[in-house]
Amino acid sequence: MEQNKATGEMGKNEKEETFGLGDAFAFACQRCGKCCQNRGDLIINPKDIFRLARFFGRSMEYIVDKYCDFTIGATSNVPIVRLKTVGKRNACVFLDNKKCFVHKSKPFICALFPLGRDIPRTDGEIGEGEAPAPAYILQPVKCGDSSQLNTVEEWLVDYDVHEEEEFFRLWMRAFRAVMEFMGSVDEKEIGREQMGAIWQVVFVYLYANYDVSLDFMTQFTGNTEGLNKHFAEIARVLGPAEPSEPSEPTDSLPPLV
Predict the structure, then answer these.
(1) Do residues 95 and 33 make contact, with C-beta atoms less than 8 angstroms apart?
(2) How many Cα atoms within 13 Å fall on the side-chain side of residue 158?
(3) Domain final residue pick, 108, 136, 160
(4) Is there a contact between 195 and 187 (Cβ–Cβ < 8 Å)?
(5) Full domain range(s) for residue 150
(6) pTM, to two decimals
(7) DSSP letters along 52-101, please?
(8) What is the pLDDT of residues 17-69, one digit of tens each?
(9) One domain for residues 234 and 128
């Protein structure tokens, strides 16, 4: 199992077994809370933040400020958001007496555990055709046991898993496209202040420009369209740039959707 350091999602190694929504795996949670400790790697996406904002009755910016750390991905150069950790055991900020106090609204990456997921790579032109459905992978974990048999869809019963899969496809396409654009911007040429302004635009469109009383997916689509327009304007102002080596494989990086 390998983790994508940019998005926090788990990608499969060639020999790992993958599961579809109707496939079964053996795992029973013992509610020990170990999966929520020593976890500085819980990178969350806009839909996770939106769900938490609705849970608390707050704005998405409030959730990021109070419960998350915001940083720039070392390899992606894209703004990313991860859950804060607290205490000597680096426990998730939402862990309380071995229980998650946002359980029904917790980030999807947490609901998946012990599963990971990935979008299989496909041949063909960038952005050609519909992205394949996510593949699920059973991670090697040191908690729980194998006394319970679950299908992937049963394990994720508290979520609209089909909507989550559709969003995941769109999110991965958008994130990779933003990563590709950010790789074309040379901070040494434009300066730290200008780069900071671009990062702020990306953060607002990806993580903050939402009304939690309205439909998420409609707003996400609108935000990616708005970000596309900003990128086109930035590219026009900066002028043509020399091609740069991508920080991560880009054989399937499509445009924003």
Answers:
(1) yes
(2) 11
(3) 160
(4) yes
(5) 2-160
(6) 0.83
(7) HHHHHT--HHHHHHHHEEEEE-TTT-SEEEEE-EETTTTEETTEETTEET
(8) 899 999 999 999 999 999 999 988 899 999 999 999 999 999 999 999 999 99
(9) no
